[in-house]
């Protein structure tokens, strides 16, 4: 017969693994929200392409791009902070480096989209 303390520790370990996986899903959700801001910026340029003055539509699109970058970095900060407080057991968590690489890639792409929107 197993000890009740051992069973409680096992349940706690599994709960921590579930929290690690939930942290990754939350990070992915925020990445999608940031990408939605990028899509809105592109859509604004498409819809208001003939808007006069053109810098007005571009400025509003840029606000969404800046918001996207803020969302990316905020999500990274929270995901890394949560990950540092947890100990993985059976789940293989993404590393903080993976979160950072994803955010740097999306930030670079968002800046490139901004450059293209202002150039066109």
**Radius of gyration, whole Å:** 20 Å
By secondary-structure content and strand pairing, the structural class works out as: mainly alpha
Main beta-sheet strand count, sense and barrel state: none
Total E-strand runs: 0
Proportion in β-strands: under 5%
Termini separation:
72 Å
Summarize the structure.
This protein has 120 residues and is mainly α.
Give an overview of the whole structure:
The chain is mostly helical and 120 residues long. The chain has helices at residues 4-47, 54-85, 96-119. It has one domain (27-86, 93-119). Helix 1 packs antiparallel against helix 2, helix 1 (4-47) packs parallel to helix 3 and helix 2 runs antiparallel to helix 3. The longest helix is centred in the N-terminal third of the chain and has 44 residues, at 4-47. The chain is rod-shaped and about 75 Å long.
Features:
mainly alpha; rod-shaped; 120 residues; 83% helix; 0% strand; 3 helices
Provide the fold topology.
Elements: H1 4-47, H2 54-85, H3 96-119
Helix pairs in contact: 1-2, 1-3, 2-3
């Amino acid at each position: 017969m197993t000890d009740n303390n051992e069973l409680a520790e096992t349940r706690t370990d599994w709960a921590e693994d579930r929290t690690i996986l939930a942290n990754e899903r939350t990070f992915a959700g925020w990445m999608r929200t940031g990408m939605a801001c990028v899509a809105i910026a592109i859509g604004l340029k498409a819809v208001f392409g003939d808007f006069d003055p053109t810098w007005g539509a571009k400025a509003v699109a840029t606000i969404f791009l800046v918001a996207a970058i803020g969302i990316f970095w905020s999500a990274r900060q929270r995901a890394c902070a949560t990950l540092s407080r947890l100990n993985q057991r059976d789940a293989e968590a993404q590393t903080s480096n993976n979160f950072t690489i994803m955010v740097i890639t999306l930030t670079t792409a968002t800046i490139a989209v901004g450059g293209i929107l202002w150039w066109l």
